Amino acid sequence: MALFEDYFFFIFSSPTTVLLFITFLLVLCLAYSSFASHTGNDPPGPSHLPLLGNLLQIDLKRPHNTLCEFSKKYGSVFTVYFGPTKVVVLTGYKTVKEALVNYSEEFGDRSITPIFNDINHGHGILFANGDSWKEMRRFALSTLKDFGMGKKIAEQKIIEECHHLIKTIKSYKGEAFDTKCILSYASSNIICSIVYGSRFEYNDSMFKEMIRLSSDNIRLVGSAEIQLYNTFPWLGSLLQKRRLILQNLEKHVAMNKDLIQNLKETLSTDGCRGLVDCFLTHQRKDEEAHVVDSLYHEKNLLFTVGNLFGAGTDTTATTLRWALLFMTKYPHIQNQVHEELSSVIGKRQINGEDRKLLPYTNAVIHETQRFASIVPMAVPHQMASDVIFQGYLIKKGTTVFPLLTSVLHDENEWESPHTFKPSHFLDEEGKFIKRDAFMPFSAGRRVCLGESLARMELFLFFSSLVQHFEFCPPPGITEAELDLTPDVGFTIGPLTYELCATNRTC
Length: 506
Known about the structure:
Elements: H1 2-11, H2 15-31, H3 63-74, E1 77-82, E2 85-90, H4 93-102, E3 109-110, H5 114-120, H6 130-146, H7 152-170, E4 177-178, H8 180-195, H9 205-221, H10 224-231, H11 240-265, H12 275-288, H13 298-329, H14 331-344, H15 359-372, E5 381-382, E6 387-389, E7 392-394, E8 399-402, H16 404-408, H17 451-468, E9 469-472, E10 498-503
Parallel strand pairs: 2-8
Antiparallel strand pairs: 1-2, 3-5, 4-10, 5-8, 6-7, 9-10
């Protein structure tokens, strides 16, 4: 009922939208004959209205929940219409893996929705296709590895940041605090040190504002209003949230330009300080060689850096926020993590090699990623060519949603998919086990390029925090009262919460 109320509030909020809505209804009858055709070889799906498609059946704030329900009736491959746009949804581990891994080329393009076209204009890494995407991804992956992704140099950066984070948490002296900002600062500093060549202090006003703008946009992009815009782009000029997203983007890009300009003015031929320096060096070489249509231009630089900054900050920070909430909600699990850390590590600094010595801690981190499922629908894909998949014809250009949450909560793969249970990743002897259906970073040619860095960050940050602090609810709130309801956004974090952190004596 609340969903219909949201629609009608939006429709009747002004005379302009009323007129547009009436016009919209009048063309429905005329539009049916030209609506997207259905062939006998299409995946099945719910009945849909012309132009509106299945919108009235979908919770636009949390569409993944509706799509999971649809899959129970229509199977692991089905069709749904977001307005006039036909979308093929893939659910369950076997189907998603088959599509993204076995048919990686066919399912490998990115579907660029209107809002992401407004933001990136086809540049950068996340929302791009073709030669530009291939070159920017290759460059970013190679450069991230050069600057230590998955190596000791990145580990040392994370350990250094752990010290800053621990110091900041200690400054609260056991009082309740919101984890969102400081965890964002810590995780962002890792990608900043690789991209820009240096970290920022937590009280740096520009750094804080860049993170705020990026975080706000990630939240706004997942709103119902923007889902409607993606379905009906002609609504764009009427939508306040779209205007706010573009205003935030303009400010973020301006700050990024200032940072890049400072690096450009101090660029040295002796060596690169970070990814931006490497890009500028490529750019200079192409200019000197008079390369025509070089892909190393300002827009690709700005949006590649912007993509890395946003993704490198938000996903890790969001996962850590869930992890600390789970530890506060389930103190017996937190105590078991600390007991393992205390017996194996003691008071010494935790390092990357310790992961194999800490199976329970590692299992808790993996279970956090599985249970929270912070990117439930993945980033939408688009068919690069026609393909017959599981007996159905999926045509080139079709938008595809590989529903990652259906993989991470697949009842055929997980013993208790809807329960937070670290034993999902432990054998009978308590040893850590890998699970094929653990796919939080997606798979195939669009798999997260920062996966190894994110894994190292999650392990070192989480284990260091539980080693140093005991997390508990604020005074007057019990563990049972802590709310695990997910927020709304492009990535799914917990609702705003506070916790207390007291120093551990051992």
